[in-house]
Amino acid sequence: QVHVVESGGGLVQAGGSLRLSCVGSGIIFSISAMGWYRQAPGKQRELVAAVTSGGRTNYADSVKGRFTISRDNAKNTVYLQMNSLKPEDTAVYYCNPGWVVGGPIPSGSWGQGTQVTVSS
Fold it and tell me: What is the pLDDT of residues 95-104, one digit of tens each?
């Protein structure tokens, strides 16, 4: 089981930027590919970006070229730099293990997430 705390969300105008952070604990966090997920009102939770412990990355087409995921293994932290934000990026963002965009969403516990709201 991975324990995570997400932060960094907020209200931003379209075209703006935000940087999300996810601090985790446990061996699973250290060795797993970690992903950023988002869930907008009325929509299913989806994986938008993932990074392996070695730094390989994977992105959903909807965020490719605008979002950058990275991790600092020494700090047990995964980041999501979000640029050129759009109103459709508005969602609660969560982190959890994951790699396959469009794959199954992990069951089990989730953090509280961090709200990102993009105004037009």
Answer: 999 999 999 8
Q: CA separation (Å) from 1 to 6, 20, 24, 32, 100?
A: 16, 21, 11, 11, 19
Half-sphere exposure of 9 (CA within 13 A, CB side): 20
- The first and second tokens of residue 71, run together, are 């991790």
DSSP 8-state secondary structure symbol assigned to residue 102? T
Q: Extract the tokens encoding 1.
A: 């089981």
Beta strand pairing call for 77-82 and 18-25: antiparallel
* Per-residue pLDDT tens digits for 23-57: 998 888 888 999 999 999 999 999 999 999 999 99
Phi, then psi, of 2 in degrees rounded to 5? -105, 135
Residue 4 CB partners (closer than 8 Å, separation 6+)? 22, 23, 24, 25, 29, 94, 95, 96, 111
